[in-house]
Specification:
Layout lengths: L3 H20 L4 E10 H12 L3 E2 L2 H4 L3 E10 H8 L5 E6 L2 E6 L11 E3 L15 H6 L7 E7 L11 E9 L10 E4 L4 E4 L5 E6 L2 E8 L6 E7 L3 E7 L26 E3 L2 H6 L9 H5 L5 E3 L7 E3 L7 E5 L2 E2 L4 E2 L4 E2 L6 E7 L13 E7 L8 E6 L3 E11 L3 E10 L3 H4 L4 H4 L2 E14 L3 E16 L3 E19 L2 E18 L7 E21 L2 E15 L2 E4 L9 E2 L2 E18 L2 E15 L2 E6 L10 E7 L4 E19 L2 E12 L1 E4 L10 E4 L7 E14 L4 E18 L15 E17 L4 E17 L6 E2 L5 E2 L6 E10 L4 E10 L3 E2 L2 E7 L2 E6 L5 E2 L3 E11 L8 E10 L9 E7 L2 E7 L6 E10 L6
Parallel strand pairs: 2-5, 6-7, 7-13, 8-14, 18-23
Antiparallel strand pairs: 1-3, 4-5, 8-11, 9-10, 9-12, 12-13, 15-22, 16-17, 18-19, 20-21, 22-23, 24-25, 24-59, 25-26, 26-27, 27-28, 28-29, 29-30, 30-31, 31-32, 31-33, 32-35, 33-34, 35-36, 36-39, 37-38, 39-40, 40-43, 41-42, 43-44, 44-45, 45-46, 46-47, 46-48, 46-49, 49-50, 50-55, 51-54, 52-53, 55-56, ...
């Protein structure tokens, strides 16, 4: 038998254990430790209190705890240790459980189960109904909402139901593009398209659905799926700033899941970045991303991955923009306040895009408020802008109008250059759209016009402008099949008068028309496989104008540069397929046929002789619309995204592109009078192949994203201009242009910090771009056939962007940028012929101008955050070029006293301060 002493000991131990357990997580203990592991921290708590902490080692591997408390509750100690992490602690039977991002549910909440018996089959033919609004206007506290999809007994025999959803903004009625729906039971996420539509297939049953998008409140619904059906939900903007939660609605915003070489910029980011003139410039912001470089102040050109400025396509609502800047690059050609989505494709370019070798900049404007009329705008020392929007038919049809103009030249008076001080500049732009949306059908009309006038002292006059319009009709034939039809027209024209040297003074006007029709289709086969295909026709019409003498002193002879036409037709198909949960393949094929059309007079030249008027041997006459020459252009595109783990991926892409037009420009930067030229009888289209490989990681606990991407691109039939080429002296461009090969390669580093008081990104790009024109004969060579750096070869580029949020109302931002100087050809010797000095130049682009460095600052002050107010306003104070550095725009030479002297020319060599007032109807969160 057990002795009495043993029984007493056992009873004592049990009582001690019961007493300790009764205290549990609320027991106060003493804890001291400096950067100890979480495992050691848990063991200390167990020994001191008897409370066990349950967790997985991988969740806390990198977590170290520093704590010095003499009396602290166990639950409070663990909560303190998990601060600034995504882990949450919960009570469980007097012990603790640690879980990522959520807590244990230990009691059932008090709730009302709200059931709505709305037959979704009836929703297919009409817009949002009053019944929908009653149960889909937002998640109320302690209410579980149920959406009934389809009709009982209406499921197909195969057991799968096709479901079409729509996500709208509750305040404006506009689609919430790229919002996500997550189905908990299937562990599957679906992303909405640009129009807010999302499609999936589910078996009949009940499902918990979570809807999310960055900047909006989460919404949860219970889906009761009976058969095929549709639903619509409305999401509310999130007014409370979240510190630790990072939501990626659009997968292209996630560094892990986006396609290779795709960049997206949020309008929130653009609003916080410093600007020179107080205007939000999305194109300048794009040059702060890896692989994208501006050609310099006073130029509108952008170079992407070693390509020329003419190798980028720019679209706003499908309308092509052939000159993207006001005031030589200091302002964008369109109002950033109307922009909803801005995507840059520089690696993998979807098959529906073609016609450029380097990149596509796709800009989508907002559709306009469908609920009520509103307005917003801004006033700076140089410009003013206004945006007005509202419903024509509430919840169905809306209008959006934007206007912007300049009204002051004071900024020019601040610059050192005497010619610029005595100059004047003004510009304006207008855009407007009407959008109709009745669920199954969307129609939109968008129109755009911009105009610039610039007078450079008494030396030059420039006028140029873009005008365009697009009509788009989108119809969803079934829940998984959609068609989109577009008619597009665009015109770019300029005129210039050059008065620098009276004997050579001239005037010249140029015009380019673009007419396009497209049909694009999307077919969602299932939740893993989507096919896009379509076709299009594009007609180019160029009037290169006449160069005529200006002024009585001009000795210049008139030259008719002629007219050109070209027809481009394309057909494409692409497939986005999730092969496995961790691997996605996006592959496409695009076939383009380009034909140069008459009327045209074409000259042929003697073989084994240079293309020169002295060697013309025949003349070919082509009638109106007669095909001069055709080119077949097949392109293959492919991208593979491999998810290595929950926070990382590896991406590989291959891209083929053709380009049928290029710019006539024999300078490094892009000027307003730069001409476009079509491929023709003598000049073939350019063709490129690019391969890229990248590693992408996210570190959610620290709010970091990082990537490293390498690329290699080759281009054939790359147009280069002979030394001293003059495009205004003769209509025969083929006598001034040779075609060679280009090779571009580089590595891009990117790290970004988000959703913290201090956020921003750092980029570093190493890249090279080299050209070789090595024909069979010396006259078919440039630089004697030796490879030389391209005009846009910029080996080193560093950008730093940072914003510090003192509060929701005060934000301080800065930009630091550095890039290697552009290549340049210098005179290296002078020799005399009959007493006349003649310059001897170096090999092409053998030297570089000094590097470029600039720092900018911006302070944004928001008005009060009251909910009920008529007008909200904010002030943005910007300081451009804080250090006043005289960055070289170019280097030029003068012969003075028998010597050749070099000079550095800077456009902005002083700090420039501007203040902008920004206003909008409504409160801080209103759109």
């Amino acid at each position: 038998m057990m002795s009495m002493r043993s029984i007493v000991v056992i009873i004592s131990l049990v009582l001690c254990r019961l007493i300790t357990s009764a205290q549990g997580p609320d027991h106060a203990i003493s804890l001291h430790g400096n950067s100890i592991s979480f495992k050691s921290f848990s063991e200390k708590i167990l020994s001191e209190s008897g409370v066990r902490i349950y967790y997985q080692d991988k969740w806390v591997d990198s977590l170290h705890v520093t704590i010095n408390e003499d009396q602290i509750k166990v639950i409070d100690a663990v909560t303190l240790a998990l601060k600034d992490t995504h882990l949450k602690v919960s009570r469980w039977n007097n012990d603790l459980v640690v879980l990522p991002g959520e807590q244990l549910i230990d009691t059932l909440p008090s709730f009302e189960h709200k059931r709505t018996n709305v037959d979704s089959s009836g929703l297919q033919e009409k817009a949002l109904t009053a019944a929908e609004e009653r149960y889909m206007t937002g998640r109320m506290a302690d209410v579980v909402q149920t959406m009934r999809i389809g009709t009982p007994g209406g499921a197909k025999t195969n057991g799968k139901c096709s479901i079409l959803g729509r996500v709208l903004d509750e305040e404006t009625g506009e689609p919430v593009s790229y919002a996500t729906m997550y189905i908990e039971e299937t562990n599957n996420g679906i992303m909405a398209d640009l129009n807010g539509f999302l499609s999936t297939t589910l078996k009949p049953g009940n499902y918990n659905a979570l809807f999310e998008f960055l900047g909006y409140q989460k919404k949860k619904f219970l889906l009761e799926v009976f058969s095929d059906g549709e639903f619509t939900i409305q999401m509310n903007k999130a007014v409370i700033q979240m510190k630790e939660l990072l939501i990626h609605g659009d997968r292209q915003l996630s560094v892990k899941s986006k396609d290779p070489g795709v960049e997206k910029i949020l309008m929130k980011t653009i609003k916080e970045i410093p600007t020179m003139m107080g205007e939000r410039n999305i194109l300048q912001v794009s040059t702060l991303l890896p692989g994208i470089v501006n050609t310099g102040e006073g130029s509108s050109g952008i170079n992407v991955r070693g390509g020329g400025s003419d190798q980028n396509a720019f679209y706003i609502n499908k309308v092509p923009i052939y000159n993207t800047s006001h005031l030589f690059g200091f302002f964008p050609a369109f109002n950033s306040d109307i922009i909803k989505d801005f995507s840059i494709y520089k690696g993998y370019v979807p098959a529906q895009y073609g016609g450029r070798l380097s990149s596509v900049f796709n800009i989508i404007s907002r559709q306009g408020n469908l609920k009520h009329f509103t307005a917003h705008g801004g006033i700076s020392p140089i410009t003013a802008n206004i945006v007005v929007e509202g419903p024509i038919i509430k919840d169905t049809c809306s209008i959006l109008f934007s206007a912007r103009t300049s009204y002051s030249d004071w900024i020019l008076r601040q610059l050192h250059d005497p010619d610029i001080k005595n100059s004047s500049a003004n510009f304006s732009d207008f855009s407007g759209g009407i959008n109709y949306d009745n669920q199954k059908t969307q129609m939109s009309v968008f129109a755009y016009h911009s105009f610039d006038r610039f007078r450079l002292s008494d030396l030059n006059d420039f006028e140029y402008g873009n005008t365009g319009a697009a009509f788009t009709y989108t119809h969803r034939y079934t829940k998984s099949f959609r068609g989109e039809y577009s008619l597009i027209g665009s015109q770019y024209k300029f005129s210039t008068t050059d008065k620098q040297e009276p004997p050579k003074a001239y005037s010249h006007a140029y015009q380019m028309d673009h007419y396009e029709g497209r049909a694009d289709f999307k077919n969602i086969l299932n939740e893993k496989n989507t096919i896009d295909y379509g076709l299009g026709f594009l007609l180019y019409k160029l009037d290169r104008g006449d160069v005529v003498p200006y002024g009585a002193a001009s000795l210049r002879l008139p030259v008719a540069l002629g007219k050109e036409q070209g027809l481009e037709s394309d057909l494409y198909i692409s497939d986005n397929y999730d092969v496995l949960p961790w691997i996605n393949i996006n592959a496409g094929f695009r076939f383009t046929m380009f034909s140069a059309l008459g009327p045209k007079t074409v000259y042929t030249y003697a073989p084994d002789a240079p293309r020169d008027t002295r060697y013309i041997i025949d003349t070919l006459e082509f009638k109106k619309s007669e095909v001069i020459k055709s080119y077949a252009e097949p392109d293959l595109r492919a991208a593979v995204n491999i998810e290595t783990d929950h926070n990382g991926s590896v991406k590989l892409a291959f891209n083929q592109m053709h380009q049928n037009l290029f710019q006539l420009n024999n300078t490094i930067t892009v000027a307003p009078n730069t001409q476009w030229k079509l491929a023709d009888y003598h000049l073939a289209p350019s063709q490129s192949n690019q391969v890229s490989l990248g590693i992408f990681r996210t570190l959610p606990q620290k709010g970091l994203e990082a990537s490293v991407e390498v690329y290699y691109k080759t281009t054939d039939n790359f147009p280069e201009f002979k030394d001293g080429a003059d495009f205004l002296g003769s209509p025969l461009v083929e006598t001034a242009v040779l075609q060679g090969t280009q090779k571009a390669y580089g590595v891009e580093f990117f790290i970004k910090r988000s959703n913290r008081k201090l956020e921003g990104w750092l980029t570093y790009t190493y890249s090279r771009s080299k050209i070789q024109v090595d024909g069979e004969h010396p006259w078919d060579q440039i630089n004697q056939g030796v490879t030389y750096p391209a005009n846009f070869d910029i080996p080193h580029v560093f950008n730093g962007v940072a914003s510090y949020h003192f509060s929701r109302r005060i934000t301080l931002s800065t930009i630091i940028t550095y890039q290697t100087g552009k290549p340049v050809t210098y005179p290296i010797n002078v020799y005399y012929v009959d007493g006349v000095p003649t310059l001897d130049y170096s090999s092409r682009n053998a030297y570089r101008i000094p590097g470029y460095f600039r720092t900018d600052l911006s302070l944004t002050l928001e008005g009060n955050l009251r909910k009920n107010k008529l007008l909200h306003s904010s002030f943005a104070f910007n300081l451009y070029n804080v250090t006043g550095r005289e960055n070289p725009y170019s280097v030029y030479f003068k012969t003075e006293n028998g010597k050749i002297n070099s000079y550095k020319y800077s456009v902005i060599g002083v700090p420039v301060f501007t203040a902008t007032w920004i206003f909008k109807l409504g409160n801080y969160a209103s759109e």
